[in-house]
Specification:
globular; seven-stranded mixed β-barrel; binds zinc ion; two-stranded antiparallel ribbon; Immunoglobulin-like; 8 helices; about 20% helix; about 350 residues; 2 domains; TIM Barrel; alpha+beta
């Protein structure tokens, strides 16, 4: 099913030494290749310099795409701007940069929308507050750095520094709720961001510890794409890039926490009149629609309809006959933690609804 698609596993929302990351793009791509990733999407703060210096392209089998991360004059409303060629001026408001990314034919993603961390004045939260602004394409439903930092206290700081992957539990419920609500209107693609910087941080003013080195981050939150071709270095960068953005803009992707197991081969699709529709699809409930989710391993699965859990099972496969139109998506859990989050399939009302 959906065998026309090829799966690519990668990491989105990376910082390099072009802003406040700590390694160069070639060094980071080399680590990603060792960890089995197929693509990386960089978003250094307010700069497209690495793109303009020709650093996009293939690094071995790893495809590197470069965008940037924008923010407003209060350093809020962070926005990942991909597939743009010209810099967006700093000091603007989200109304302006969301529109400019859209007009440039870019792909814009709201970063860490519900960030609330408050453990340190030096690292304040950077939430998205401009919900009145329309025109964004996606939303980061899971941001690893935010989740790590939100749970930090003086008592658990050292433990969290030493065991970073164990602090990844779930996306923020508030963000998932908003995402479900947004998709009732139009497609808003969910992606997972790692927000990697690999800062060195002095613990209790004593010894420096690197927070989340790149090699550790690459074992955590991954965004899996279902692309329409087998992307490899024989293909030109432009062709490969267009396949990545085609899959992203159609919502043909899912998010996994790789530290709980390899989620490759997870699929969520709809079948109607013997035709198969992948995740991200929007289709009419006429003739009747059947949903099918298959896991790479037996796990605890939930099917959600408009944000409410309507089915739960411990299984490898879940099937569901659609009765009501709405936004359907899958969540999978392992060891009582979030493992896989699908993009939704939206069923629009048919003649009988
Ligand atoms: Zn940010
Ligand atoms: Zn960032």
């Amino acid at each position: 099913m959906n065998s026309e698609y090829h799966e690519m596993t990668g990491a989105v929302h990376l910082h390099s030494d072009f802003s406040d990351g700590t390694l160069s793009i070639p060094e980071i791509a080399s680590i990603a290749g060792e960890k089995g990733l197929n693509y990386l999407m960089f978003s250094d703060h307010n700069t497209l310099a690495p793109k303009h210096q020709g650093l996009e392209g293939w690094y071995g089998d790893v495809l590197v795409l470069i965008g940037c991360e924008l923010n407003d004059p209060h350093d809020r409303n962070h926005y990942l701007a991909f597939r743009i060629d010209r810099e967006i001026a700093e000091g603007q408001w989200p109304e302006q940069y969301v529109r400019q990314v859209r007009e440039a034919g870019g792909f814009g993603v709201i970063a860490h929308p519900a960030e609330k961390r408050n453990f340190s004045e030096a690292y304040p939260p950077y939430p998205w507050t401009a919900w009145h602004v329309d025109g964004f394409d996606g939303i980061e439903i899971w941001n690893q750095l935010s989740e790590w930092a939100e749970g930090v206290t003086r008592r658990n700081l050292l433990w969290r520094l030493l065991h970073p992957l164990r602090s990844i539990r779930f996306p923020v419920w508030e963000t998932l709720e908003r995402w479900d609500q947004l998709n009732r209107g139009k497609r808003i693609v969910g992606i997972g961001g790692i927000d990697v910087h690999a800062h060195r941080f002095k613990v209790f003013k004593l010894f420096p510890v690197e927070i989340y080195p790149y090699k550790v981050q690459f074992k955590s939150i991954r965004t899996h794409l279902l692309v329409k071709a087998d992307l490899n270095p024989e293909m030109t960068f432009r062709d490969a890039e267009s396949h990545v953005y085609e899959a992203l803009s159609q919502g043909r992707c899912f998010i996994s926490n790789h530290s709980l197991g390899d989620a490759c081969d997870f699929r969520f699709s709809a079948v109607s009149s013997d035709k198969c529709y992948p995740m991200g699809s929007r289709l009419v409930n006429e003739p009747p629609v059947r949903l099918l989710a298959s896991m790479p391993a037996k796990a605890s699965i939930r099917l959600l309809w408009n944000g409410s859990i309507i089915r739960e099972a411990g299984a490898r496969v879940l099937e569901h006959q659609v009765i009501r139109p709405g936004v359907y998506r899958i969540e999978v859990f392992r060891k009582r933690r979030g493992w896989i989050y699908s993009n939704p399939i939206v069923v629009e009302p048919g003649a009988n609804d």
